[in-house]
């Protein structure tokens, strides 16, 4: 598993960001664990020195007590954990060029903003970190998806997935197959590039191989697992074209 660290000197911000990290890790506890949150760079550095080269994920505020201490810590992280990935979270965009000057190659640079947007950006960083380390498990072109739901990880064949859609619970999406439905913490946009999947609306992806019927008048598709899903009016022509073309290529 990969350790996650947070450096933030504002207690309220640290509490909010920690909650976001814990929300993600709750559903990915076989991949990550929260190793430390602190307002003091040396506290994090001491832990890294004790366990070097652990390929951690580091969320750092650049400015700590009026100084660019986050950058200094990032330099030291790269020394002890060269494979680790750094994400800068800051309310000072002017510091961004300094990350280039230090050759830190951060995974992302996230401005402090509304909590919902911040949550989405942090979740994306987690996914990107894992995708780059384990491309065989996360590639959009592979034949399987590995979905974490609670304490279990499910291996789903792409061919068996009928639809992927958002739920009423924020950041929870549902994978519906021919035989089951599984919910997981994720973002729909992370799956939009899957081969053979079509975006019916902002909240639904459908497997073109699993479409049984398209009712353009009612703006609905019927899938082989019995699902009936609505599609956006502006997707009508693209859906019909994509589905027809897809059927022809599969002959």
Description:
There is one protein chain. The chain has 251 residues and is α/β, with parallel strands linked by helices. The protein has 2 domains: 2-137, 3-Layer(aba) Sandwich (Rossmann fold), CATH 3.40.50; 144-250, OB fold (Dihydrolipoamide Acetyltransferase, E2P) (Beta Barrel), CATH 2.40.50. It contains 7 helices and 15 strands. The protein has helices at 11-26, 41-50, 69-80, 96-101, 115-133, 135-138, 236-250; strands spanning 2-7, 32-38, 57-60, 85-90, 108-111, 144-149, 152-157, 161-166, 172-177, 181-185, 197-201, 204-207, 211-215, 220-223, 228-230. The strands form 4 sheets. Strands 2-1-3-4-5 form a 5-stranded parallel sheet, sandwiched between helices. α2 (41-50) runs parallel beside α3. The longest helix has 19 residues, at 115-133. The chain is elongated. The termini are far apart.
């Amino acid at each position: 598993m990969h350790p996650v660290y947070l450096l933030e000197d504002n207690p309220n911000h640290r509490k909010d960001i920690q909650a976001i990290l814990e929300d993600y890790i709750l559903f990915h506890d076989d991949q990550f664990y929260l190793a430390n949150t602190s307002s003091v760079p040396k506290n994090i550095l001491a832990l890294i020195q004790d366990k070097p080269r652990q390929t951690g994920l580091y969320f750092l505020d650049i400015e700590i007590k009026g100084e660019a201490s986050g950058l200094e810590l990032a330099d030291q992280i790269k020394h002890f954990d060269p494979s680790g990935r750094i994400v800068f979270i800051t309310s000072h965009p002017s510091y961004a060029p300094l990350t280039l000057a230090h050759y830190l190659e951060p995974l992302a640079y996230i401005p402090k903003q509304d909590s919902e947007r911040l949550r989405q950006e942090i979740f994306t960083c987690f996914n990107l970190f894992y995708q780059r380390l384990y491309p065989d498990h996360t590639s959009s072109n592979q034949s399987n998806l590995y979905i974490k739901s609670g304490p279990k990880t499910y291996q789903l064949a792409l061919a068996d997935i009928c639809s992927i859609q958002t739920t009423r619970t924020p950041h929870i999406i549902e994978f519906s197959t021919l035989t089951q439905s599984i919910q997981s913490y994720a973002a729909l946009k992370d799956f939009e590039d899957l081969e053979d999947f079509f975006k019916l609306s902002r909240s639904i992806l459908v497997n073109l191989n699993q479409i049984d019927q398209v009712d353009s008048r009612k703006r609905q598709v019927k899938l082989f697992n019995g699902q009936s899903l609505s599609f956006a009016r502006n997707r009508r022509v693209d859906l019909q074209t994509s589905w027809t073309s897809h059927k022809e290529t599969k002959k």
